[in-house]
Amino acid sequence: MSIDTHEISEFHMALQIMDNMDAGLVVLDLDYNVCTWNSFMRSYSGIEAGIIIGKSVFDFFPDLPKHWLKAKIEAAKKLKMRGFSSWEDRPYLFKFNNFSPVSNGLSVMYQNVVFTPLLSLSGQVTHISLMIHDVSDIAKKKLHLRESNQKLSHLSRTDGLTGLYNRAHWEQCLSEQFAQCDTLSSTATLVIFDIDFFKKVNDTYGHSAGDGVIRNTAYLLKKTARQGDHCGRYGGEEFTALLPNTTSEQALFFAERLRKRVEQSIVDADDSQIRYTISLGVCEFDPKMKNHLQWLESADKALYSSKQNGRNQSTIYQ
Fold it and tell me: Is 81 part of a structural domain of the chain?
């Protein structure tokens, strides 16, 4: 076999390897025209090489992130170095359907992409190759793990009955808010309240009805609160709302709005309809306070005043 025949044979084998590799291979010239389009790309795109080669890739894939892709190619060309794009930064470059049985459940193929500058004999970059790797199985596992961790994190922070923050997480929010107010000289107000005569509700209608009253209270609290407020179930029938960037007068408006909503609400329990009220204490952050526990204690004193003065009312801590 002559040297020329040997080289042609090796070149032919290399072409077969590139065409049949388990990854997409696209070679573009500097005008973004397709020069190589292997079987992976043909299979997933449904576009034959004879149709796309010599044409602009953007004519066939108008949904490609044009500015991002051009910037990646330009960087690889300028630096004469490989570039990389992870599925975690951009889920895919070419929007292909996912058919992998391992990653069943993902509708789109998640992809890692390698950008490689191709040099001519003179050392100039004349083409860019794009290697498209299907990483849908890795992505599915990582996305599932991420989702599971988020659910666990959510469960560790929330109360099961109401969906509000539990006591531990809410106290952490209060401690952080106290530090922020103390450091930045900002303001925030704490509202604490409980359900009036809740024991009587349980004794009269049963614990299941009592749970219904607690859930209704939590629902009305979330409905009244703003997006940035921190609402929690502090214990049994006791609730809290931490209102950042809010004065005591503004918080009193919040407290009264919540109180009236609760007073006007009805909770169905078997053949009965339960009406109930709440008492609230309001306390604005004071720089003289030593820590967040003193803030909480002051709000609790205001709540106690509301209960002492007849319940179903809101009191600002003086």
Answer: yes
Q: Rounded distance, CA 71 to CA 58, Å?
A: 14
Instruction: Tell which residue, 254, 248, 265, 193, has the closest CA to residue 226.
Output: 254
Conformational region of residue 32, where left means phi above 0, alpha means psi within -120 to 50, and beta covers everything else: left
Residue 148 within any structural domain of the chain: no
CB 267 within 8 A of CB 209: yes
Instruction: Provide DSSP, 251-316.
Output: HHHHHHHHHHHHHH--EEETTEEE---EEEEEEE--TT--SHHHHHHHHHHHHHHHHHTTSS-EEE
Number of domains in the chain: 2
CB 264 within 8 A of CB 253: no
Burial group, residue 146, by CB count within 10 angstroms (0-12, 13-18, 19+) = exposed
What is the average pLDDT across 2-19?
Answer: 57
Residue 21 burial (CB count, 10 A): 13
Q: Which domain holds residue 245?
A: 158-316
**Positive or negative: CA dihedral 95, 101, 102, 104:** positive
d(CA 268, CA 318): 38
Question: For residue 195, is it within any domain?
Answer: yes
> Do the beta carbons of residue 306 and residue 197 sit within 8 Å?
no
Residue after which a domain boundary falls, among 143, 169, 191: 143
The structure tokens 């409980």 sit at: 194
Q: What is the pLDDT of residues 26-51, one digit of tens each?
A: 999 999 999 999 999 999 999 999 99
Do 302 and 163 have their domain in common? yes
Parallel, antiparallel, or unpaired for β 272-274 and 267-269?
antiparallel
- pLDDT value of residue 105: 66
User: For 83-131, what is each residue's pLDDT tens digit?
Assistant: 999 999 999 999 999 876 655 668 899 999 999 999 988 889 999 999 9
